[in-house]
Amino acid sequence: GVGIDATVTSLDLGVAVDGTRVLAGTGSVARPGRGLLAALRDKTPGKSIADKLGDPAIDFSLTVPDHAPSAYAAIAPKTKDMPGHIGGAIHVGGRLSAPVAGGTIAYDQFDTLNGGSGRAALVLDAGAEQIATRIELGDLESASAKGGAAPVTIAIELPRAAIAPYLAAKKCHAADPPSAEPCPGDVTLPIVARIDGDAVDVRDLAPAFATETLKLQGRLDWKLDGRIVLDPKPRFIEVAGQLVQLPPISAESTLDGALVFDRGVIALPGTKRSYHDVRVAISHDVNGVRIDAISARESDLEKPDRRLDVRGKVDVDRFRHGGLEA
User: What pTM did the predictor assign?
Assistant: First the structure.
């Protein structure tokens, strides 16, 4: 519920599914309850909610109480027999005009194909200067872990100070009718993206309950370094006589990376067949995606050395699909 008194507004919220509490939020906003609704109804142009409420301090915790995936069976029947646990917490502080937040929510404690403890986690670190989030795959103590880091991490970072100017410029450019004042120039929002997975045994990642019949084996190397620069100014190209708006991606953007899965073995469920020497090698940059190799071998009585080999590329023109060659 919501508690309102002379000095603070307190919050105590919760969500339950079929009797199991799966989400809870508790904390306070340092804003007196007196006049709260009147302040929110203030229609002064250009006045933000933070301004209306006096930019109060925030102290709020969003918690996912530890629970099994089967808690969602009433609305998602396939989770009934899923192993593992879901839980974590994110704390929100700072002031309403510039909140900061940090914490982790994870799905873990399920068996991997290697017999270890599986883990997939979302980590948030929204500080005063930048907002960073990452996805961690694999147990921190598995054979593929790197000095306390997860076997695979997918991270995104963006500078906090650039967000408001970018959104304001985007709103200005999208205004209909157009704004009487010129829109801000040279406003961009750079987003840094990284993926890091080095010599990872896929059996340290794969949940046994979902992949056991595949008898999956192999090694994964996955790297990406990107700086995607968002530009709010509308840009168009002509396609078949019609103007098509391009994604808001600046030419300053950079993107380099590769994914390689090799030494692979994959069984075909429900059969005695399996592929071995499986290799998938994909590289990419701002100009396109290259399929350097998709290959596999299969042996049976009919044909002792059946092979699959695919190569190709997908061209990208300013982050639009430009063509496929295979």
Answer: 0.85
